[in-house]
Amino acid sequence: MEGQKSVAEENREYWNSKTNFYEREKDWANKTAEQFTQELIRRREWIGLLGQKSSELRLLDVACGPGMMSHALFDFVGAARGIDIADRMVDTYNERAREKGLFPDQMSAVQGNIVATEASSEASISSPEYFDFDVVTMANALHHMEDPALTVRRLVQRLKPGGTLLIVEFINDPDDSTSGSNQAGQPSVTRAGHGHDHSHGHSPGHSHGHGHGNKNGNDGNGNNAGVAHHGFTQEQLQKFFVDAGCTEVDFVLMDEPIKFPPVLGSLERMSSFTRGKKSSVSVERNSSI
């Protein structure tokens, strides 16, 4: 429809408006980020990281937000790069890296859209610096992507052969009788209405809100939050990886659910980790697949 914003435009505006949320709910958000961090550290070998820092390993954090994934795994890699569609998130990511005493060659982020069709939109992330990573991560952002299968393929393209893709996502429970359906007939990720903020695991204390109970999402204030999908099942996530050419695809749930504070509805959500390895068959960087 003419004049209608794309999902990418909605996401950019939405996340730019949410950069200060972690300050308002700092205690809960920091606790949630620490929960994610401990889960990631405990599973570092499963992810494909060594038990100690390796200056040779490079990490790409896509939909990075202020950088939870980058900071959680930085002790095991030599360099981390972030990509986010929202420029204010990128600013916060880089500010946090500086506060930690890191130089740009150690940790830095740029604005970019890995599924953009316009060459100008990809210019900032088309250089060799943003390819051939050992580990690529995306935390609780896949359901914001209009085409999740394409997104996973683009993520895999950023890996070196044998590299690891790790996607963190809140998981649908097909046996949950409280899960409804959205207007498009997709299963809902909610357990009790889910009109609340939730942590996307982007950084210590970073979280954001949208209501998954409405088609395309709603942040509880009548504002579209750029939600393109209402969560995924284990089978869907694993199929995205396999179809993108990954091998050794595996799926695990976090040991404990994410618990939200009263201001966010006191809900509990289970999050998942899906991991796969890029096959040794190379894929052209500029492929449209």
Can you give a write-up of this model?
The chain has 289 residues and is α/β, with parallel strands linked by helices. It is 27% helix and 22% strand. It is built from nine helices and eleven strands. Strands 3-2-1-4-5-11-8 form a seven-stranded mixed sheet, with helices on both faces. The longest helix is centred in the N-terminal third of the chain and has 17 residues, at 26-42. 46% of the residues are buried. Mean pLDDT is 76; it is low at 176-224 and 282-289.
Produce the secondary structure layout.
Blueprint: H1 7-16, H2 21-24, H3 26-42, H4 44-47, E1 58-62, H5 68-73, E2 79-84, H6 87-99, E3 107-111, H7 119-122, E4 133-139, H8 148-157, E5 159-170, E6 195-198, E7 208-211, H9 234-243, E8 246-253, E9 258-259, E10 268-269, E11 271-278
Parallel strand pairs: 1-2, 1-4, 2-3, 4-5
Antiparallel strand pairs: 5-11, 6-7, 8-11, 9-10
Instruction: List the uncertain runs.
Output: 176-224, 282-289
Number of helices: 9
Structural class: alpha/beta
Mean pLDDT: 76
Note the quaternary state here. Answer: single chain
Q: Per the principal axes of the C-alpha atoms, what is the gross shape?
A: globular
Order of secondary-structure elements? HHHHEHEHEHEHEEEHEEEE
Rg, nearest Å? 18 Å
* Largest sheet data: 7 strands, mixed
- Spatially, the strands of the biggest sheet line up as 3-2-1-4-5-11-8
Strand content: 15-25%
> What distance lies between the first and last C-alpha atoms, to the nearest angstrom?
25 Å
Helix content: 25-40%
Kindly state the number of beta strands.
11
